[in-house]
Amino acid sequence: MKKLFPLFLSVFCFSFFSFSQENVIWKVAAKKIADSTYEITAKTTVPKGWHLYNNNPTQEGLSNLKLTYSLEKIKLLDSVTANKKEEEIDDVVFGVKTNVHRNEIELHQTIKIVGFIPAKIKVDIEGFKGNISTQDFRDLIDSVDYEVALEGGKESTKNLILPNVDLKHPLSECGEKVEAGGGWISIFLLGFGGGLIALLTPCMFPMIPVTVSFFTKRSPTRKKGIQNGLLYGFFIFLIYSLCSLPFHLIDGISGDVFNIIATNPIVNIIFFIVFIVFAISFFGYFEITLPHQFAGKADSKSNVGSVFGIFFMALTLVIVSFSCTGIILGTLLVGTAQNGAWALTIGMGGFGMALGLPFALFAIFPNWLESLPKSGGWLDVVKKVLAFVEVALALKFLSNADLVKHWGILHREIFIGAWIIVSILLALYAFGFLRLPHDYKGQKISLGRKIIGFIAIVFAIYLAPGLTQSKYANLKLLSGIAPPLSYSIYKEAKVGLHPNFVNNYEGAIALAKQQHKPLLIDFTGWNCANCRQMEENVWTEPEVYKTIKDNFILVSLYVDDGAKLPVEQRLLNYKTKDSTTRDVITIGNKYSILEYDNFAASSQPLYVMLNNNEELLAYPVGKTEAEKYLEWLQCGLKTFNKK
Questions:
Q1: What Rg value do the Cα atoms of the chain yield, rounded?
Q2: CATH superfamily of 501-642
Q3: CA distance 263 to 591
Q4: pLDDT in the model for residue 228
Q5: Is residue 520 a contact partner of residue 535, using CB atoms and an 8 Å limit?
Q6: DSSP-assigned beta bridge partners for residue 609
Q7: What residues does CATH 3.40.30.10 cover in the chain?
């Protein structure tokens, strides 16, 4: 049983599935046959018992073996050809005759590179493989990109380390590094607040009196009942905390991987879709439940021993309540990911503590149960109000992806307009004008619903100036949530302080030397909430604005920008300071590594002052108050002028 405990937790929290299979390992090479023209060769020996599918035009889903390249400016001069003809087999998987390769196989393709020719590219082989004896059919992708040297190619620029930066000994003692993200206390409170919200959902609230009554009535003594209740609450806290464990255990994880998680467009699109689906469910149009076997297996263990039985009771609660807590947990994951693994642990711990605390407290003071509101229609109201909130949050995730990819789908005014519509619909529901499933005509509107409706109307009125170009368009409460002022449908949007350069460090330092001004680096992100708060609340302060505009060359470097770098600036298998390897393909790749390798930080915003020799004028700072930020700027400027 002791061995089962960590194993079950790992399976539940990691959600990783591993399969035993034979990898197909290739030897890939390039031979120059003319100017900018190369023949790519890929050789392999197919593992015994396995085969590679090829040339099956009539079999749906079976594509030919294909070579894909990391460089987009490649012209394919011919298709992929094999050095021998395929064998025809009676395929027990598909029930038809298929063409396959066995044993040794060699693929060829001729390509022409347009423009700059790098020293190396990466090649991947796509296709499908199968095994007749096990009736197994698997995708051929083995997560391996093969690095191939190109004769006559040129090495890309490798200027990501600033040699004169000494992070431990800046030219002055100005500044005191502030952790972007608001600190661990605020992250814990964020998670705790999310847990309190989750407690009010129909999946959780009814479980409080039922579970506490179970412990108090089934335990032989009141002391034992209190102990069991405390243990139950502790296990809920522990399970949620341990769900962040993979982020601590993955070997070789790069320092900015959490930033990648939080800003990745695909991740944000997935969350957008999931939130919309959950919102529709919360509105009452259908129910989302996990497969019965998940909860059943955990519940079946709840009778095994006292301590382990209570643990599996807690695990059962965590699993069956996922349909209500999953969305809040997803928001917490993306909201804290930029701050690293411990931030995730602290946030998840806060969430678990908020969920576990009531069970412990009511077990100690069972008389409190009498004052607890009875489950009823008000829980359905809470669920539907949360559905409106989920729609608004879904738009935020879509906005994150839109900002990174520059699609132009949700400009600031469109985003705010959508939130106004959601707020108005929420008000109409709260006052009973909009009916959703399980509502009925003439339903009594409680005081709580009226208060929610009033708040929704006030919020919609507050949002309205954000649709204009007036001085009130800067909605400070939404700084970091709504798209930045510069991402506007208006061609001449009022955006405050304009950076001298965006995503161009080389141009900025050159201009700083030319004008003999210090360089102010703003490591930022399109999806960085704290960055928007600094830009819209601190940079707009008159003294701060004037100090930066008159005395600094300001460059904003976006660490989540998905635009690709020019080929001559890309780096394959670049080794970072922590000895992990990264491909530097996008603008965001370049500047996230520049920040991490030179300034030992992976969160944003981070502000850095350099002189014309690229020496550090002061300690970097993160999000801070306007007064302290101005003091830091003036200290760095004074140090620069002394030099």
A1: 29
A2: Glutaredoxin (3.40.30.10)
A3: 14
A4: 77
A5: no
A6: 520
A7: 501-642
* Run of H or E residues at 413: helix 412-430
What pairing do the DSSP bridges indicate for beta strands 66-69 and 37-45? unpaired
Parallel/antiparallel/unpaired status of strands 136-139 and 146-149: unpaired
Distances (CA, A) of 466 to 70, 389, 398, 406: 42, 19, 19, 21
pLDDT in tens, 192-202: 877 777 776 65
Buried b (16+ CB within 10 A) or exposed e, 406-441: eeeebbbbbbbbbbbebbebbbebbbbeeeeeeeee
Cis peptide before 605 (omega within 30 of 0): yes
Q: Model confidence over 299-311: pLDDT tens digits?
A: 444 444 467 777 7
280 in Cβ contact with 436 (< 8 Å): no
Q: Give the SS3 label for residue 497.
A: coil
DSSP assignment of 171-216 = SS-------TTSHHHHHHHHHHHHHHHHHTSTTTTTHHHHHHHHHH
Tokens matching residue 226: 């209190």
Q: Tell me which CATH code domain 27-149 carries.
A: 2.60.40
HSE-CB at 336 with a 13 A cutoff on CA atoms is 30
Q: Which residue has the tokens 């009022």?
A: 494
Distance CA 177, CA 279 (A): 40
Residues of the chain with CATH 2.60.40: 27-149
What's the CA gap between 358 and 366, in Å, rounded? 11
Contacts of 189 (CB under 8 A, 6+ apart): 350
Q: What is the pLDDT of residues 358-391, one digit of tens each?
A: 877 777 776 665 555 555 566 678 778 888 988 9
Residue range 115-144, pLDDT digits in tens: 888 888 999 888 888 887 766 666 555 567
Average pLDDT estimate for 177-192: 64
Average pLDDT value for residue range 293-302: 46
For residue 272, what pLDDT is reported? 87
Determine phi and psi for 220, rounding to 5 degrees: -65, -30
**Residue tagged 């006052």 (tokens):** 431
Q: Per mean pLDDT, which range of 8-22, 46-60, 393-407, 541-555 is the poorest?
A: 8-22
The burial class, CB within 10 Å (0-12 / 13-18 / 19+), for 300 is: exposed
User: Which residues lie below 8 Å from residue 179, measured CB to CB, with a gap of 6+?
Assistant: 339, 603, 622
* First-last CA distance in the chain: 68
